[in-house]
Description:
The complex is a heterodimer.
Chain A: E1 9-16, E2 24-30, E3 34-38, E4 54-55, E5 60-65, E6 68-72, E7 84-88, H1 91-104, H2 117-138, H3 148-165, H4 173-185, E8 197-201, E9 208-210, E10 215-219, H5 220-225, H6 229-244, H7 247-267, H8 277-309, H9 315-327, H10 329-335, H11 346-360, H12 370-373, H13 375-381, H14 387-397
Chain B: E1 2-3, E2 6-7, H1 11-27, H2 33-46, E3 48-50, E4 53-57, H3 61-93, H4 95-126, E5 128-130, E6 133-137, H5 141-157, H6 163-177, E7 178-180, E8 183-187, H7 191-207, H8 213-226, E9 228-230, E10 233-237, H9 241-257, H10 263-276, E11 278-281, H11 300-318
Antiparallel strand pairs in B: 1-11, 2-3, 3-4, 4-5, 5-6, 6-7, 7-8, 8-9, 9-10, 10-11
Helix pairs in contact in B: 1-2, 1-10, 2-3, 3-4, 3-11, 4-5, 4-11, 5-6, 6-7, 7-8, 8-9, 9-10
Amino acid sequence: MLNNKYDTFEISCRYYNGINPLPLEGVLFFELMRVRIVFPNTPSDFEEFPLEGFGYDAIKNWRMNGEEVTFGLQEERPDCLMPVFKISRGQETEDIAERISSGRGHMSSLLHFDQKWYVKAFLLMVAIVVSAYFFLNSLDVVHPLVSLKVDSHVGDWVDERLEKEYQVLPSNGINRFLENYTKRLWPEGSPRVNEVKINIIDHQMVNAFALPNGSIYFSRGLLEQAQSPEEVLGVLAHEIAHVRLRHSIRQLIKSVGTILLVRTLIGGTIEEAELAEGLLEVSGGLLVLKYSRELENEADRMAIDQLKDAAIDLGGLADFFRRQYEESEHEKVLEKALWLSTHPSSLERSELFLLEAKSQNKVKKVNLEAEAANWIDFLAANGLKSNQELEADANVKEP
Amino acid sequence: MKENPEFKGKGGDFFVLYLKNILLTIVTFGIYKFWAKVETIKYLYQNTSVYNESFDYHGTGKEAFVGFVKGIFIIGGLGAVWSLINYALTAILGESGSIISVLLLYIGFISAQPLLILGSMRYHYSRTSWSQIRFGFKGNTKEFYFLFIKGAILTGLTFGIYAPWFFTNLSKFYSKSTHMGQRNFKFNGQGGDYFGIFVGGYLLTLFTFGIYSFWWKASMERYYWNNLEFGPIRFKSTISGGQVFLNDITVLAMIIFSLGLAFSWALIKTIKLSFDNLSLEGDPKLEEIVGSLDRDASSISDGVGEAAEALEQVGEMFA
């Protein structure tokens, strides 16, 4: 509310011309329609501004700063010396500010609401939490804007490095077997299905992973540890789901976005907040890990659908995860601190697949290709040894 | 004639500004960051006053953003040129060509530093004012390169012993190059004096398991201010190690127990400590100062620095 709608406010002012550091002392008369200036000791040739006065629309950069109000008669430019007036802040300046805004027909700023600092802080914190939530969720839906070519380039780049780092075994019957099943597990005729390439790394770790360009890597250790072709096909279905759902690119977007968000929230726009850097890395990392587990679950759900459609026994994957859990001490430790893991618990995953396998019993499962029906023989035919054979070899060598 | 500068900033207001900056940075997908930095500097400057007149900052977010965009293009262009050189040298000389091109990259990077520092200071001072009189920075590039290279080499060769002389020479250079109106600053410190503070502080900090570091920090701050002049004005700092110790411990406790939320109050408290212990002595003869403006100062150096930092952060994310 304007208290003194028709009043003239007489306020002492200081005028700074940007050349002389000592300001000119004067009086500003804020009349109803215009502002007049009187400088008692003004030289007669003083022509820096209209002494006859100016309208409220001529007032620019009205800025309340602590106990002072500053304004000029030109739009502020960083590369110009800008003469300004300074007056003391008070009730009159609030009324004048309202006169200036109503003259322009708009609010000066949405964020300049007149409240105590803690009310503003509370409202801003609520707004930050809401925007951060929407920002994080928006990261999940932007990947369609990224061309599939990016997936291919990123994948090719990693492919090159992997091939330098690890020995990739020459393509054999196992590669062909898995590539044939890729077409059954990704049946919609997507052109990307032809981009899938199966690679076997000569390493004893038990692992498989997919690159965004469709390269799927199985380690020799995983193939040797598997007890049946269904286990390996279950893993294949899971990796295909990662490719189809573009998890690598989504993970990349989410990681970058999350780190930027956390950096903004903690480091903000103040360079002095270096103390928070450690906290930043930990909190950002935990959010990224949570997302990684969500993507693994998503790939599991798609793998279940794919395996059911292809009539491949889901019990294979249930056995695979159960064994992973039982044979790995690492898994048991991680289960107690899952928030530190990139993957969900193997035990939980095993139970999920087992449950789905039971419902699958009602349908007739497809016969696997004859050559791979006995996995241990199939491994031997392709130059690999089963886990049992490896253990037997180790026992023979022991004195 | 003695004058005490004053800092009127309040933790609550600064915290609100910080939150507003965060909110706008998130909703603009990071672009507001440049405006946010400017708003932060403005708040700190506008709340600092001496002789009853406040400082101000006239840079804008738009300038900073444009500088950043130009910086990205400059770094991108230089990166492309380097890639070509790397490709050619590797093709001609093999692995040693690749090593040479990496060395060239490092040399280029180090050589660009003085230029970026000077450009950044020139821009920053040209946008800073007190009583609406702009500051300015006219550092001689050749002189700075000479100082920089000589200082870096001698500090390296003497295993750090030359560092106090390097510091005082840089302070002298920065001070004499900084002006407000036509009046320059002057730093009278001598490397030998600073050497005593430097070595004494280092050894005592070592022997007291870090406790003396607060007293060392205070003595370095006093040394800097007590050797600075601006025309007839002399600065004097009386900050003590005990004050720094008490402040730093309090500030650390505030930040830890508030889970970081009290950092605005912590920062304001630290700034106030320095100002409360600083005074200006001598007749300022302000009427003799005539303001001027460096119209050629540009935000490109700052932008290149920002762009390099942004690229480094992206690199860290993918590392």
